[in-house]
Amino acid sequence: YTWPDLAYDYVEEFLWLELTGFAGIPAVCAPSSGNPDGTTPSIQAQWLRTAYHDMATFNAGVGGMDGSLFFELDRAENIGAGLSNTRNQFIKHISKYTPIPDLIAAGAVVAVGQCGGPSLSFRPGRVLAAGPGPSGVPVPTGTLAQHTAAFQRQGFTATEMIGLVACGHTLGGVTAVDFPTINTGSAIAPFDDTRLFDNHIATNYVHGPSVNPLVNGPAVSESDARIFSSDGNVTMQSFASSASTFNSTCATLPVLERMINTVPTGVTLRDPVVPIPFKPRDYLLSITPAGTLNLQVTADIFGPSVISSNRVVTLHWADRQSTKCASGACSAAFISTTSNAALRNGNTLQSYKFSVTVSAAASFSSFWFTVDEVGNGATVTTQNNGGGNYPVDDLVVNVPAFSCGFFTGAGIARITTAV
Ligand code: HEM
């Protein structure tokens, strides 16, 4: 990774730093333990089902994760307020770098992780379909032969079908309002006895009692029972006897990762977006009304247990002609620090904000940071973008004092930017 990389930076900040609040929508996988209460929908379950329904119509290189689902919500196979709720949540997060199908895939990653499931990797690069695609999401009244053929069309073997359905149906349940003949009881008939992403979908099934309405319901719609027993229960028994087999099948085999990475021919996914432990963010070089140059940047330190009140982070820079900083005077302390201890996968973030102003004649050519972990000078490391420093382009500079933007009418804005 070399800074700046606008597409990577945006997605990293979206997914790991949670800067747009996406991962905060389903706040917790609540109740985090114990029985589902039968009334509270699970946002995580809705997000995971959304991903499957988008992928499920994939056929010979056409369709897959392309967001076409949101053009297809009026189809009977896509019944349920969960899917339209999800669309309404996701559209607020559309950006140049996070189109709808990437949001659907990221939603599955977030949902599985938040409920205690495996950490799935997220590769961006999906492309939104121009409109609805073919139909073909499996329905509970389908026969085993129909389901096996549908999963084969989606790219999964008969055994992988068992894994994919179990990995999906460990979350959520069947709603009475949409499937009144399957769920004749409370609002939501859960698939297993916890709301977590765990192997209880298998332990309940193998050892009983299974509350799963697609296992113990009207025979015509017992699709889970038909699928789970299709190999003589071998796969479900392996899941029931080992939580780690279940988790690794869902992730590493990887049925869920393959599900979200099933894209139309011609679409190439980018590398997985991994968190960058040290990265500049919110960089802005601008001209002040006084004619001086101001550089603002925030240094993010990310990972488990990174929050520290002792750490000293210092910004250093080289001027444009590289003459004025010879004395080493070109450095500055941060003006504020903020921290967030509640990010995905047990990660934390501490951010250090800098703002320095120099004469236009001196300007900046690059910057870097030193990090003194305990603040006593004993362990100082340098963060310099892999050796080349973080570059500054001072050829075209923004002038915020003479820039403005406002709405002139519904959905119409006038933006004036001075450079
Ligand atoms: C033969 C294949 C499948 C059939 C027939 C099927 C059927 C169903 C049905 C009838 C529901 C209830 C929906 C509602 O009441 O809103 C449901 C929910 C769900 N399905 Fe499937 N499903 C299949 C495969 C999958 C797969 C492969 C996944 C994901 C990997 C998945 C994920 C989910 C999730 C998470 C829910 C719970 C949604 C919620 O609680 O809001 N399903 N499924």
From TrEMBL:
Key word Transcription present: no
Gene3D superfamilies: 1.10.520.10, Peroxidase, domain 2
Keywords per UniProt: Heme, Iron, Metal-binding, Oxidoreductase, Peroxidase, Signal
Residues of the Plant heme peroxidase family profile domain: 102-172
Domain of life: Eukaryota
EC code: 1.11.1.-
Top class in the EC scheme: oxidoreductase
Sequence intervals crossing the membrane: none
A biological process term (GO) from this entry: hydrogen peroxide catabolic process
PANTHER family hit by this protein: HEME PEROXIDASE, THYLAKOID LUMENAL 29 KDA PROTEIN, CHLOROPLASTIC-RELATED
Family (UniProt): Belongs to the peroxidase family.
Protein's name in the database: Peroxidase
Organism of origin: Mycena pura
